[in-house]
Amino acid sequence: MSKIKTPALSLRELLVQIKDLAEIQLDLAYSAVIYDDREAAEQALRLESKITEYLGYVIIRAVMAGRDIDLAEKMYALILFASALEEISDAAADIAKLTVENVSLGVFKGVLMHADEVTIRIEVGREDWSGATIDQIEQQTGMRVVAVRRAKHWILNPPGDFKVWRGDVLYLTGPEEKIDDAYILLTGKKHSEVRSGVAIAEHLRNFFDVLISLKYMAETSLALSYYALLTEDIRLAEEVEHLEQWVDYMREVLYLYTLRLSRHFNEVDALRGFFTIIDATERITDSAYKLAQIVKKGIDVSSFFKIIFDVADEKIISFEIKDSSKLVGMCLEELNIEEKFGVFLLGIRRGMTWYFSLEDKMQLEAGDVLILRGPAAAIHKFIEAFS
Q: Which of 88, 135, 194, 216 could be cross-linked to 198 through a Cys-Cys bond (beta carbons 3.0 to 4.6 Å apart)?
C-alpha cells in the first residue's frame, strides 16, 4: 500500500494557494523585521512549511496527470512555477528568522522605514535646473546619475535625454571632490563638511533607499513575469531578465559599500540582517527570472495560468485605452492611479515598445495598453471609471 497521500486539492487549487501564500508570507516577513513582530515572523515560517507541503502535492498531481509528452511538458512548466514560488517562500523565511533569532537591524531599522537613495542623494531644488537632462547634469557635475526617484517611482540608469524636475531625488556616484559641485548645481547650496557620525547615518539612509528600490524591483519583476505567463509575451519576459541582471549588479554594489562602511560601527548583527535582506531580495528576482524562462521556452500554459490568476487574491490585467477614453491626453501625474484607485501601474505598452520607468509628465495615448496590478475591487473601480 502506498504511503503517499493523494492530495485533497486539485492542481489548480494547489497553485493558487502557493501563489497567494507566498505573497502573504513575504509581507509578513518584512513586517516582522521592521516592527520586531515575533508573531508575524512565526506565522511566516509556518507558511513556508505549508508551501513546501503544497509543492510536494503539485509534483504528485503533475506526475499523475502526465499521460503524453505534450501534457508532460505543461506539467513541467507548472512544477517550475510552483518551485519558483517556493524559492520566494524560502527567501521570506530567511527574513522572518531574523526576528525569531532576535537579530535586530539596529541602526538600519529606522532608515528602512524611511527609504530614499545611494552614494550621495540630492533633491533638485533650483528652478532653473528643472527640466535639465541627465547628460547636462553629468557634464556639469562630473558625477554619474545612477538613479532618480520621482515620488514613488524609481528610474534606474536613466538615459542621457531623461529630464529631471524640481523635487526629483537624484542618486549620483563619482569622486568625493565633485560633491560640492553637484550640490551647488542642483540646490544652490554648498555641501558642508560634517562629522563622521552624521555622514555615516546619511550613507546608511542612502543605501537603505537602494534596498527599498531593490525590493520594489523584485516585486515588479515578479508581477511582470506573471503577466508574461498570462500573455506568452517573450519581449516582456526579456525585460524581466534585464531587471534580474540589474538587481544582481546593485547587490554587489551594496555589498562592497556596506563592508567599507562597517568599520565605523560595531553592530555586527545589524549587518547580518542587512545582508540577509539583500540576498532575499535578489532571490526573488531570480525566481521571477525562472518564471520568465517558461515563456521563453515556448511552453503554452497561458490558459492554465489564466484560470489560476482569475481566482487569485491579487489581479493583474491589461487595459487598452480607446480613442474615446477620458485617459487620452492625461498625464500620469494627473491620473495619480495609486492614490485614487489603489492600483499599481506596472508598465505601458505603446506599439511594440514597453515603458517601465514612467515619468509623471508622460501623457497617455489612444492604443496604449496599461498593465495594472491590485485587488479585484480596486481594478473594477478603475475599469468603471475609464471604460
A: 194
User: What would the grid cell of residue 54 be?
Assistant: 503544497
pLDDT of the residue at 83: 93
Give the predicted TM-score (pTM) of the model: 0.69
| Per-residue pLDDT reduced to its tens digit, 227-262 | 899 888 888 898 899 889 888 888 887 777 777 666
Terminal CA-to-CA distance of the chain, rounded, Å? 58
Which cell numbers hold the place of 288? 521571477
Nearest CA-CA partner of 155 in 34, 23, 332, 329: 332
The strand pair at 153-156 and 144-150 is best described as antiparallel
> Would you list the DSSP string of 115-160?
---SSEEEE---GGGTT-BHHHHHHHHS-EEEEEEETTEEEES--T
Domains along the chain with CATH numbers? 11-106+216-304 (1.20.58.220), 313-386 (3.30.70.1450)
Query: Helix, strand or coil for residue 283?
Result: helix
